[in-house]
Structures are given as structure tokens and as C-alpha cells.
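Recall from the previous chapter that SMILES is a line notation for molecules. Here it describes NAP.
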Amino acid sequence: MQITVVPASPKTGAATVRSLLADPSATVKGYYRDLNKVPAEFKAHPRFEAVKGDVEDAATLDFAGSDAVLVITPPLYEEKDIVAHAHLVAENVKAAVKKAGSVKRLVYLSSVGAQYDRGTGEILSNHAAETVLHDAAPEVVFVRCAYFMENWAMNVETIKEAGFFFTTLTPLDYALPMIAVQDIGATCAAELLATGTPLPARPHIFELHGPRAYTSVDAQKGFEAAAGRSLEMRPIPKEGLGEFYGAVFPPQVAAAFVEMNASYLEGGILYEDPRPTAGEKKYGKTELAEVLKELYGA
Ligand SMILES: NC(=O)c1ccc[n+]([C@@H]2O[C@H](COP(=O)([O-])OP(=O)(O)OC[C@H]3O[C@@H](n4cnc5c(N)ncnc54)[C@H](OP(=O)(O)O)[C@@H]3O)[C@@H](O)[C@H]2O)c1
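With both inputs in hand, we obtain:
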């Protein structure tokens, strides 16, 4: 089975390629806008081909011969309209799928909360892509992922340098579903390899969580185990999110992160979740402490 990952550059793209290559029946094409960034572990693999292409440019995408496609809308950290950008990327991929004629299944790596058209900040990009991709192939799967455990990577620097870390997950004992990137890769690969197996609906949608929900205190314990010492946690209250994200991101990006972060705290739309994703939930196996240990490099 030939499977295309577009783009393959995000960490979730790499995790999916890794899982796919573990199955001898899969040959994989991965799109990169910069071929110098193809990981060495894939470059030499006989069933992997790196293709130069940019999801922002429809003319560079050619899926002829592919049976299945994994689509990712890469996050933007520059001053662009994130919704318009995700819409463009999804339209480009949809057109390439139609042109190829061979693609039976499209899997979109989406987010918890992608069903909402307001109040979720950055997740509105996933909503925009879902509205375009819902009928892009005979079989369509939306994998709505929980908060990535790898988001905690941003704290490693202050932990190593000064023994503390900021957390925007408050109150500190509030538990949020989280998922490891390697489990996202394994789940997306399984969905792609199941191409041709009947699905209950188009699109078939499920949420992907880790083995349990985790609190900021769990993150502190995990980092302390990795660092081998006690660490100070510095909580950012909901009212302080604007200043916090404004210090590291340009204004539009910061605003999207503030709204997304607030959406899963008490009072936010994802906390209330008035229109939950119907049907099954799937669960990864990897625990937060395992991911934090790896991020820390212990
Ligand atoms: N973080 C979360 O908690 C969370 C939760 C649920 C869902 N999601 C969603 O998950 C998706 C994937 O996130 P991720 O964390 O895997 O992404 P990521 O690793 O942050 O992706 C960054 C990569 O995207 C590539 N990229 C950017 N623009 C590109 C373009 N025009 N063409 C090709 N490649 C491009 C960049 O490649 P270069 O090497 O070329 O610069 C960069 O390496 C996003 O849609 C996000 O909304 C995230």
C-alpha cells in the first residue's frame, strides 16, 4: 500500500512515518518543503521516498498512485490569518487528492475541539481544515488529538538553567487529557493501513487521549523524576495569559494561544464541551512521565 504524509516535517508527521515503516506492507512518501530536513533514519529506508513540496502551493503536490494520505495543517508562528492558512492548505490537499484519483482514504490529524467555530483560538485552524476535508476522499477519518505531552518541552530550558517552570494549566490539580506524539503516530498509521476497511461514517471522527488525564502537579513530579531534584512551579493565572504569550509570540499568534489556553480552563468552551465529539474515544499507552523524561534527556 502506498501512503503519503503531507507534510512529513511536523513531529506528528515524523512519528506517523516511523510507525508506517514498521509495517512491511507500506511504502511511504513524505513531503518536505526543505529536503535538507529529511531525518537520516528515513533517508536510507528502502520503502521511504522524500518529495519536495509545499502545502501552501497546490502545484507542488502530486499524490498519483497513493492509496491513502495523512494530512497535517502545520502550526503558524508568524503574523498570518491561521484560519485562512489552514483553509488554503486543506483546499490544496483536497484538489491534489481529487486529481490523483487513486486515494481511497484521507486521515486528517485534527484537535479536540475542532467541532467549534469560535472560542478555541489556534484550534480554529483545525476546524477550518475539517470543514474542507470532510468529503475529500471516499473514506475520511478525523483524529481529534488531545493536548500534546510534548508541549511541555518548552519548560526544559528554565528547569535546567534555574530549577523552575511556568505552567498555564490551572488550578494546579486540574486534570487535562494529554497524548504522546508517538501514540499519535501509531494511531494515524493504523488508520492509514486500514484503508478499504468499511467505516461507520464519512467523516469517521474520534478523540485520541493518553492513558489518563494529567495535572500540572503530575508534570512537576515527572520533571522532578527526570531532573533528580525538586523544582519550583510558577503558575500563570488565566488573567495573566495575555502577558505571558505576548512576551514570546507576535500579537495575532499570542491572541490565538491565549484563547486556546483559556478554552480548556474552567469557564472555557472546551471545559464545558456543549457539543462533545460523538462516538468512541481512543487511548494511547504512553504516560506523561515517560515523555517528560525523554524531553529532559534523562
Ligand atoms: N500541540 C498540541 O497540543 C496539539 C493538539 C491537537 C492538535 N494539534 C495539531 O497538530 C498538528 C501538528 O502539530 P505538530 O506539533 O506536529 O507540528 P510541528 O511539529 O510544530 O510542525 C512544525 C513543522 O511544520 C513544517 N511546516 C510549516 N509550514 C509548512 C509548509 N508550508 N509546508 C511544509 N511543512 C511546513 C515545518 O517544517 P520546516 O522544517 O520546513 O520548517 C516545521 O518543522 C497541527 O495542526 C496542530 O494544530 C496540536
